[in-house]
Amino acid sequence: MSANATFCATLVDEWVVRGLEHAVIAPGSRSTPLALALRADDRVTCHTVLDERSAAFVALGLAADGGVSLVLCTSGTAAVNLHPAVVEAGLSDLAVLVCTADRPPELRGVGAPQTIDQIDLFGSAVRWSVDAPVPDDSDPAGWRELARLCIDTASGLRGGRPGPVQVNLPFREPLVGPAGPLPVSGPATEGAAPVGGPPRRCPMACSRVAVWSSSAVVTGVSQPTSSAAPIGSVGRCWPIRRPVSAVSGV
Are 41 and 106 in contact (CB under 8 A)? Predict the structure, then answer.
């Protein structure tokens, strides 16, 4: 059994329980364990995009439709290409799990080509970043809690605003192998609410409401899930015909 495969299957299982539906994969070598785990789970819709920058923006667009999305890339300079979309996700309060595969600690800083320091790579653009431990079969107890912390922080369920979270994932070779039994779900997992279920407070969701005798116009940045509460409260008094984009021409 492969610790890498079991660890990644556990992360994916926990993330799916908590609302992950879409994953965008920029193929690479070091990211193979998580890419295979995502592909193996029928509950996740996987999108393959060869260019890392483009992959990140695809994940950004999927997150803008509501819920949380995931983007995965391999180790090294490939991860830097995610930065523009990560910044956009942070400014727009969009929940994106930014998964960057990495070398294990003993192979970092040895001068190998295209390798960089990936820890906290995106700085203040993310809500949180974590350098995960190298998967080890001797201590799987914390894997689900790590997954919960990542997705809850991204979705704004830990008290902050929704936004991107970097999950830096070091893997030792061999990168391919069968997954073993997954750690059992604890009480926190079994009672988890899918992302988008509970209302999320977003101060940028509604910047102005103009009311006439029979209609209301709500303006602000596009936040489909976060703006549901203020729009719903207006809708109890006035019928909401349909939302329109600022560039729609309507």
Answer: no
Dihedral sign, CA of 81, 46, 165, 169?
negative
Amino acid identity at 234: V
Tell me the three-class secondary structure of the chain, residue by residue. CCHHHHHHHHHHHHHHHCCCCEEEECCCCCCHHHHHHHHHCCCCEEEECCCHHHHHHHHHHHHHCCCEEEEEECCHHHHHHHHHHHHHHHHHCCEEEEEEEECCHHHCCCCCCCCCCCCCCCHHHCCEEEECCCCCCCCCCCHHHHHHHHHHHHCCCCCCCCCCEEEEEECCCCCCCCCCCCCCCCHHHHCCCCCCCCCCCCCCCCCEEEECCCCEEEECCCCCCCCHHHHHHHHCCCCCCCCCCCCCCC
pTM, whole model, 2 decimals? Answer: 0.77
Summarize pLDDT for 86-132 with one digit per residue, the tens: 999 999 999 999 999 999 999 998 888 878 999 999 999 999 999 99
Instruction: Give the integer Cα–Cα distance in Å for 99 and 122.
Output: 12
Instruction: Tell me if the domain spanning 3-190 has CATH number 3.40.50.970.
Output: yes
